Amino acid sequence: MNFARQQKQIETAEVLAPEASPIDGVAAEAPKGGLRGRYAWLGTIASLAILAGSLFVLWKLVQTVTWAEMHAAFTGASGEQLGLAFLFVAISYLFLTCYDALALRQLKLKVPYRTTALASFTSYAVSFTLGFPLLTAGTIRYWIYSSKGLGAAKIAALTVIAGFTFWLGMGVVLGLSLIAEAGQLAALTFTSIALNQGVGFGALVAVVAYLLWVSMKRRHVRVKSWRLELPGASVSLSQMVVGIGDVCAAAATLYVLLPAGTSIGFTTFVAIYVLAAMLGIASNAPGGIGVFEATVLLALSSLPRDQVLGSLLLFRVCYYLVPFVIALAMLTVFEIVKRSRDAKASREIESARETATRDLGA
């Protein structure tokens, strides 16, 4: 479940390499003024409003749940549920590594998959938990990819393209699930069938329009002094498939942790999950915490609240905390190995210099 926002990812280009020279797929242009800077505070206010409102709703919802009930629900998951949950977590993060792989393909950069997987997994696992993706994910990507010769500009471009992968998958999953389960979702979210179907068709139309747009000719995204070439139709279709796999696997992680006997179908639940994830993204909170939980609790109000809350907490542990700990361990090992190799290379260089000096003296 990639909660990294496309807009933030585009802004990464400005943060990582504001004065970088043109590169393949990323060309410099003269800075242009606009209204964006003047009204940027509106987005911040909207995000804070969503976060504050959701936290208030969440507080009201959990007032009727006792600590004993929540503890029982949290620890009541079976071994089979936990096994399936971690399986889907692994699948989701595997798809996340494909985000970077497709971006590297678009930028015509050759990086070993083990490096791609390490950079992708650790950057997402850390940024999902800590938030501030510009700082956390961007720093980790630069830390790892720079060791393979990638500059800040190319790493920024990679981050932007990975963002498009997420939104393509999210749009398709949201559209299909809203159309297929419009009736049941209307009953759960207190909306109309026509509204759900309209939003679903709108999401699919937006995805199809984007695919047609990038297939006609080469397209670019411009951000101040940056011009990034967007992937064509073939890469975009691959991005769409990868994004769908990631979103569905992440949703399945929470779905298998829900209370036994849940009557809500997976297709219906995916729509709820995507809606909760999108609101979490809009809130700017790390992993959409608070906003995500409040949305799911409201949509699943027909289920025991304490059990759903326990499932959500367990989901946080499985999808966020465990990968975060693993990512920190992997980064520690990476740094130790890197320092060891650098020290060995330095010793070899020094030894070669001493040998050359002796040979000259002789």
Write the layout of secondary structure elements.
Blueprint: H1 6-16, E1 26-28, H2 40-62, H3 67-74, H4 79-106, H5 113-130, H6 136-145, H7 152-180, H8 182-189, H9 193-216, E2 220-223, E3 226-229, H10 233-255, H11 266-283, H12 291-299, H13 305-361
Antiparallel strand pairs: 1-3, 2-3
Helix pairs in contact: 1-7, 2-11, 2-12, 3-13, 4-5, 4-7, 4-10, 5-6, 5-13, 6-7, 7-9, 7-10, 7-11, 8-9, 9-10, 10-11, 11-12
Describe this structure in words.
By secondary structure, this protein is mainly alpha-helical. It contains 13 helices and three strands. Strands 1-3-2 form a three-stranded antiparallel sheet, covered by helices on one side. The radius of gyration is 23 Å and the shape is globular. The model is unreliable at 2-36 (pLDDT under 50).
